[in-house]
Structures are given as structure tokens and as C-alpha cells.
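Annex B. Sample input.
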Amino acid sequence: MTNLNLPPVDLKLSINNGKRMIFDILRKKSIQVTPEEWVRQHFVHFLINEKSYPRSLMANEVLLNFNGMNRRCDTVVYDRNLVPKLIIEYKAPHIVIDQKVFDQICRYNFVLRVGYLIVSNGIQHYCCKIDYDNKTYSFIQDIPMYEELLSC
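Annex B, continued. Sample output.
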């Protein structure tokens, strides 16, 4: 798999029925390895290990209903009251992060109304902070520590 712009992590890989599998520590099961899943697993470990995100307050593949259609957020991070604070959308490393990707995550945010959005292809990571009072958003340089999410 592709080397990513994330710290190295020891992932549990296996083969099942000839398919490469990776253990998802949030869903607590093995998932087939795809380029997007490779990014997701590295990014989740980065948030837990480097940014102090509690594993118990994160979820992968969160089901949403948007305009009568079911959609899935790649990862959602919650506060201690289980209020969503952050949505993350992952793409495979070869996918360019463009306006279409941001439009996708913004549609999810119509439902969840979080304070932060992140998109990553494992090589490039973009994070923006939403200011609902002033109806603006700003891109920030670094992925926030977990405690920073709670102030939003």
C-alpha cells in the first residue's frame, strides 16, 4: 500500500479468503483493505496516538439521512455527551481533494452541524473550523487536539 503523510503505525493485517484485511479498532472487526480504508486506519490511529482523541468517542461509517437518502460519514468524533464535533472524509491517496470532496462533507454537516471538518487522502489533509455565529469558516494549519474540539 501507499506510504502516507502520517506517522507510522502498527496495523493488524491479515488474509481472509484471499482478501487482504485490516483490523478496524473502532468497529472492532477486520475490514477489506482498500486505498481509502488504508487512509482511514492510519488517520484514526494518528488522532488517537498523536492528538489524544478518545477511541470510545469516535465512530467509523456513521449512517446519516440527508434529504431522504442514507449516507455514511467516514469518521465522526463526539464530545463526552455524544454530541458530534468533527466529521472526517477520506479519499484514496490518488484522489485529488477538490471542491467536490468538500461539497460532500458539507452535505453531511447539514445534518450533524459540527465545529470542524477534515478531508484527507493520506497525503494531504485539510481542516476547517466552522463559525456558525458569523456564518464563516476558516482553514487551520494543524489538526486540533481533542480538547480543542470541545470549545466549539
